[in-house]
Structures are given as structure tokens and as C-alpha cells.
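Practice problem: predict the structure.
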Amino acid sequence: MSELRQQIENVIQSEDVALFMKGTPHFVMCGNSSRALEALRRAGAPVTAVDVLPDPRIRQESRSWRRAASWSERSRRNSVRTTAAPLPSG
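Answer:
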């Protein structure tokens, strides 16, 4: 495992919520980052932000994590959808 990947994994494992974003919470550089940050703030989540812009390697590495998280979330939703059934009447 690369040192960078290990650092990213350490952030993910040690923080309740880690947002890999373009910019910082005080100077957001992307609409998606802004929307994600706002949603987390509204939910009252303790957010640790990681700016992916200063080092292109962080952005590239975080893309692989995003794909994995997206797949994991899709799998979770699909499993909930397939296991949910109406209660029997009677």
C-alpha cells in the first residue's frame, strides 16, 4: 500500500466524517463540495475536510475511494430494497 493511500485510509478510519473536497470549508472551490459540506453541516456532522487541490495525487487516489464508496452505498440500497417486503396481512 502506498504511503499516500495509507494516509487517506488513516483519515477515513480515525474521523467520524471525512470530506475530500475541492477547497476548504472556509473557501470552497466546487459546487459539489459546497453542497456536500452544507448537507453535513445541516445534519450536525463533525466534518474533517481534506483539500484535494494542492496535491493532484490526493485527488486521484480519492477517486478510487469514491468509486468504492459509491458501489458500497448502491449495494446497501439494493440489499435493503430486495429484502424489504410488505408485512403479511391477516
